[in-house]
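RING-type domain-containing protein
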Amino acid sequence: MNGMSDTTGGYDVEFAESLSANLDDIKCAICLLILKEPLQANPCGHRFCKSCIERVPGFGLDNELVCPSDRQSVKVFADIGKEREILNLQVKCTSFDLSCNWTGELRTLEGHLKSCPHAIFPCKYQALGCKFQGNRQQLCTHLKEDIDDHFSLQMEKIMRQENQIREHEIEIAQHQETISQQNNVISSLLVEVKSLSVMFFPRCPYEFVIENFKARLTNSKQQNDFIYSETFYYLNGYRARLKVYLNGRNAVQGTHMSVYFQIMKGPLDDSLQWPMIFGLIKISLIINEKCKHKMAINCKQDQEHLKTRFVKPLREEGEAYGVKYFAHRDLPIDIHGDLIKLVVHVTKL
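Structure:
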């Protein structure tokens, strides 16, 4: 007999006297045992143990669920009256077949079982596989005499767990290898995507067209400011821009145009060589489709500057490198289209 010991399902008890009530009226429609903490379904009226109906998908006292008996849509509520009726019933001890003559209300059965000398209990190592059951005295003797058996059961469990751990470790290693391979594929694809995205941006040789030149030159004289070109790519992934002082910078203000080459942070920086290795950075000034001036930054001649100016940018923009005396401002009176061009070309070493 299960009596009061199970945490799920109803009461498995023998009644001390014949019941005047219909036995089906106090049985759970799921486990078919005597209702424990009964809940009733509305509107169909079926009753269930709380622990039984809790396992039905969608259970909740305020939720609708499908009745397991007739598949109706129902809500359930605690049937306190039926619970009182059941707990008032007279029952026998679950060890009545072992000469225990106790009878009493169902609500007192649990208290009796705690002191009943005939009550049957499973071995505490039941979860490990021990199938012994007996009264308190028998159980005490069993625990003392069968230590070796229990130890063997524990060792078997430990060995099973160790085997499971090894299997899990193998599975984890396989998953980690798969993840590593997938990460490599993802990294490769990201590089490809970044490389493809670079193709849609301006590339060397790059032309920086400065339109409305006269107005911008006047503004530069008044504000002593500079202008940036858009960013462009060169040498398979490096990113840069030009920084131009139309009216000159510092000591050459008003006499020369100052031009600087500035490395920018780019999507392919992690795959590029730093400091940047190049042959020449050539910048030409084109006015009226004629080259008026040019300058070149030579990698071999500018090794010291290379170490500081052409390193991987930590922020959005790196160091700017160029010359203040890029071009004297003795410009032609007639500038076709009111525009000038700066053409940049970067060569390999």
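The chain has three domains: 23-119, 124-199, 206-347.
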